User: Fold this.
Amino acid sequence: MGKPRISYVDPAKVKDPAMLAEFERCAREGTPRPESQAVRAHVPAVFWSFTKSWRDVFKNGVADHDIKELCRVYVSRSVKCEFCGNQRSMKAAKLGVVEDDYRDLINFESSTRYDERQKAALSYAEAITWDLPADDAFWARLNSHFSEPELVEIGYFIALTMGQQRWLRTLGIEHHQILAGTDASMAPGFETADAATQSKQGEEYWARRDVAAADRAAE
Assistant:
């Protein structure tokens, strides 16, 4: 694994007890993983801004967490952020999201895995990610499934995670480089650095398969 384009802040050298506790939580729960936080930690205001947003808007909030998790991974697979796309929400898993639910995200409209509410949310993620037209029919579909507060939160979260994922993709960060030894929130096959390397070499690895489908969706 190569070095990130922006260095990691070593948690062992962090003097702020609150920041250190948050690093330990990230290693334990994986939301977010400690590597991305070790980059944000160069600017404490950035570190805490993201921490608070992730907790209050993604993990908690007014909209269903499992819906937001599907949108998050849809973005990962669209912009090819492997760092984010190889993570899973432990909370979403407890709510019933299984690994197969991630497989058809790029082709969600034609998939039988998602209900109409999930498809509406994913269409929202698609429109924001790919800058698609949002006409009256588009908004009627969203309004039939979600309240305005839910639409605000889901839209804000999609925009937040899309921007972060596009940024993280440019940094070249990898899992298991900071506070290694935990598999918290890692996708199956990515629990360790060695397992991740092997999974990425497989023909069915999503970043090989889905990027072509995402490119077609953007055309």
In short: The chain has a mean pLDDT of 94.
